[in-house]
TrEMBL record:
This is Tyrosine-type recombinase/integrase. It comes from Nonomuraea composti. Residues 309-327 have a biased composition (Basic and acidic residues). The lineage of its organism: Bacteria, Bacillati, Actinomycetota, Actinomycetes, Streptosporangiales. PANTHER family: PHAGE INTEGRASE-RELATED, PROPHAGE INTEGRASE INTD-RELATED. Residues 307-327 are annotated as: Disordered. Residues 233-446 form the Tyr recombinase domain.
């Protein structure tokens, strides 16, 4: 390496003759002109500040690259964790749903600020997370303009982020695992949250293995036990049919508009075990609603709610393929006469949205999850006793789906058919609803006795 102390720092040039404004830092090393382009003046200033500090410290500069030896060492060690995490999010953007993008980013809001070196003038974690959330973890066209302080925070993060290669060290991975084990406020994180963030870190490192940056996933070598998450339904949340009917009858009494418009949607969750986002995208063409007898729903899509910055359309709701199903794959659910009648009544009263959706606001929009919750909690207060309202019984609209699946299983419907209607695999169905399969013990014991007597 050919090095020198002959360094002269120049000015930052603002170029406006390009599609994107560019700020170019210029300096000379051993008489040779050097330059580096940045998106913002703040980043260019931060880079020049690093050069200035290295020169003041009497550091040697590499003649070929123009960088101080310390910066050259960092550059030669491969991408930083921050750089690789950005690339990971953007690489997956076009193939993931809005909620997945948001979940990925949420994990990285924890990991990126934790995996940094001891650089001076560290911004607060809240400031670093905000820069990541509104700018750094989004595609170029979706990034918000940064304030001067936010630009400084982004520059600090770019300089301080550890090289990705350092994640092969157990002590560095321990820092990451400690970070995902607490909330942003510093309290212990929920088991499901910890497991989800750990899975995202593992998947990110699998991408690094794929790109030959690691020989194997270093996280596999860490002896760390994830907290045990609850994966079964609590029977205390499950209503019986009489309670479900009383709750549904109370829904139209909540508010002048929302309650009446949401009764049939909640009924779809209970009588057809639809997920709320599946009910939100239910269209008239998906329904066979005879005047008498059973009907049929053929689900095509779901309409989950997300944050605007993560959706393709920039809207909070957008139509997506069904959960755990391939694009354009459908799911058939026979529906009982009581639900057929409710849907016919709802359509006669409110019609459909322009795109054929059965459940829409008065202006054709989609009710938010907070609107669902508001109406549902109002219905619980009207239909249940104070003790039941304070309990977990049907605490969320989603619990109606759990009640439906539990009812089907306890009625003796074969598990494969229940799984087919609910959109589960059989093994997941039996594991998740194991504690809700009550009332069959004597029947099962009898079958065992019969087998033993043969």
């Amino acid at each position: 390496m050919n090095t020198t102390y002959d360094v002269k720092l120049g000015e930052i040039q603002h170029r406006t003759d390009r599609d994107t404004p560019t700020f170019i830092a210029r300096w000379r090393v051993a008489g040779k002109q050097k330059s580096k382009s940045f998106r913002t003046r703040g980043l260019a200033n931060a880079f020049m500040s690093d050069l200035r500090q290295a020169a003041k410290a009497g550091e040697e500069f590499d003649v070929a690259t123009g960088l101080p030896v310390s910066m050259l060492a960092r550059a030669s060690s491969g991408p930083t964790f921050f750089e690789f995490a950005q690339a990971y999010v953007l690489r997956r953007w076009n193939t993931t749903a809005a909620r997945t993008r948001e979940t990925d980013a949420y994990a990285l809001l924890t990991l990126i600020p934790a995996l940094v070196g001891k650089a001076p003038h560290r911004p607060t974690d809240e400031d670093l997370r905000e820069v990541l959330r509104i700018h750094a973890l989004l595609p170029e066209k979706r990034r918000a303009d940064l304030t001067a302080a936010q630009t400084v925070a982004l520059g600090w993060l770019e300089r301080a982020s550890l090289p990705l290669s350092e994640l092969k060290e157990p002590q560095v991975l321990r820092v990451a695992l400690d970070a995902i084990s607490v909330t942003f406020a510093g309290s212990p994180a929920g088991a499901n949250t910890v497991r989800r963030k750990r899975a995202i870190l593992h998947h990110l490192l699998e991408h690094a293995v794929e790109q030959k940056l690691f020989g194997s996933n270093p996280l596999d070598e860490i002896k760390w036990t994830a907290p045990k998450a609850v994966t079964v339904i609590d029977p205390r949340t499950v209503v019986n049919p009489a309670q479900a009917r009383v709750l549904l009858d109370a829904v139209p009494k909540v508010g002048r508009k929302r309650g009446p418009r949401l009764k049939a949607l909640f009924a779809c969750i209970y009588y057809a075990a639809l997920r709320p986002e599946e009910a939100a995208d239910l269209r008239l063409r998906n329904c066979t609603l005879p005047e008498t007898g059973w009907g049929l729903i053929v689900l095509e899509n779901a309409r989950p709610q997300g944050t605007k910055r993560w959706t393709d359309s920039g809207q909070t709701h957008e139509s997506r393929s069904l959960k755990h199903r391939a694009n354009k794959e459908t799911r058939e659910i026979p529906i009982p006469p009581v639900l057929v009648a409710m849907l016919r009544e709802h359509i006669a009263e409110y019609g459909t949205a322009k795109d054929g959706r059965i459940f829409a606001t008065g202006t054709g929009g989609t009710y938010s999850s907070s609107a669902h919750s508001y109406v549902w909690q109002g219905a619980r207060k009207l239909a249940l006793s104070p003790a039941q309202v304070a309990s977990s019984l049907a605490a969320r609209p989603y619990d109606l789906r759990h009640a439906a699946v539990s009812l089907w299983l306890n009625a003796g419907v074969p598990a494969p058919e229940v799984a087919k209607r609910a959109g589960h695999s059989v093994d997941v169905l039996l594991r998740v609803y194991a504690k809700c399969m009550d009332g069959q013990q004597e029947q099962i014991n009898g079958k065992i006795n019969d087998a033993l007597d043969t």
